[in-house]
């Protein structure tokens, strides 16, 4: 049981709408991915702050795959919800949709998960957050999936760190074979 109490998922859910104006466009006329990422970070913070009633930082962002381009003139809607909380971390799930009024279409742009960690503003140390009061089957499922993603994230990071630490230059050169790169230097590398 959390000694910071419990709060419902709904209490911190956030919806953010933003019109995609011409200054958001890249040279190809589509909206910069970075604009969307910035809005996602903003809504993740708002959602996490609403849950923990305090300060938090973005600890990690899961992969963000843009499934559809966003056009200037589209209305972007971001939905954010706390899926899972640990001791000081909160996983915020974010879904982004873009609406084109002329065509009357709504497209799913992307979905991602942000891990926010509540900090004491003075000490900058992680602090305990309220638990989640789950109210239906969807919330239970999202909580368990968030818990699983936390475990997989750690394992994945550990695996990459281990591979990187063990990688010798000789093995690295073998991995280069058939890749789209070249190394014109003279080599005297130990295998
Ligand atoms: C995130 C941060 C506070 C973690 O600090 P730490 O001393 O490693 O904290 P701990 O190891 O005690 O972990 C605290 C919590 O953060 C989580 N966490 C730590 N690093 C994480 C990461 N990279 N990804 C996801 N979660 C992470 C832990 O799982 C733990 O969760 P729990 O309390 O719910 O179990 C610290 O790395 C930090 O301040 N990073 C910079 C964040 C920042 O400035 N973001 C904005 C960038 S502009």
UniProtKB/TrEMBL annotation:
<comment type="similarity">
    <text>Belongs to the acyl coenzyme A hydrolase family.</text>
</comment>
<dbReference type="InterPro" id="IPR033120">
    <property type="entry name" value="HOTDOG_ACOT"/>
</dbReference>
<dbReference type="InterPro" id="IPR006683">
    <property type="entry name" value="Thioestr_dom"/>
</dbReference>
<dbReference type="GO" id="GO:0052816">
    <property type="term" value="F:long-chain fatty acyl-CoA hydrolase activity"/>
</dbReference>
<dbReference type="GO" id="GO:0006637">
    <property type="term" value="P:acyl-CoA metabolic process"/>
</dbReference>
<keyword id="KW-0378">Hydrolase</keyword>
<dbReference type="GO" id="GO:0005829">
    <property type="term" value="C:cytosol"/>
</dbReference>
<feature type="domain" description="HotDog ACOT-type">
    <location>
        <begin position="10"/>
        <end position="122"/>
    </location>
</feature>
<dbReference type="InterPro" id="IPR029069">
    <property type="entry name" value="HotDog_dom_sf"/>
</dbReference>
<protein>
    <submittedName>
        <fullName>Acyl-CoA thioesterase</fullName>
    </submittedName>
</protein>
<dbReference type="Pfam" id="PF03061">
    <property type="entry name" value="4HBT"/>
</dbReference>
<dbReference type="InterPro" id="IPR040170">
    <property type="entry name" value="Cytosol_ACT"/>
</dbReference>
């Amino acid at each position: 049981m959390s000694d910071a109490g419990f709060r419902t998922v709904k209490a911190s859910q956030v919806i953010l709408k933003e019109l995609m104006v011409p200054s958001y466009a890249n040279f190809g006329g589509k909206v910069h991915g970075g604009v969307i990422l910035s809005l996602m970070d903003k809504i993740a913070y708002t959602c996490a702050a609403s849950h923990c009633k305090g300060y938090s930082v973005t600890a990690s962002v899961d992969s963000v795959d843009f499934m559809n381009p966003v056009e200037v003139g589209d209305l972007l809607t971001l939905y954010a919800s706390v899926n899972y909380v640990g001791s000081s971390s909160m996983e915020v799930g974010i879904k982004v949709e873009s609406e084109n009024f002329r065509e009357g279409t709504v497209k799913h742009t992307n979905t991602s998960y942000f891990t926010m960690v509540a900090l004491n503003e003075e000490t900058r140390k992680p602090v305990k957050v309220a638990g989640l009061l789950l109210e239906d089957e969807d919330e239970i499922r999202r909580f368990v999936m968030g818990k699983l993603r936390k475990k997989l994230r750690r394992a994945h990071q550990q695996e990459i760190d281990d591979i990187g630490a063990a990688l010798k230059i000789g093995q690295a050169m073998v991995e280069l074979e058939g890749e789209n790169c070249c190394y014109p230097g003279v080599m005297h590398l130990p295998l």
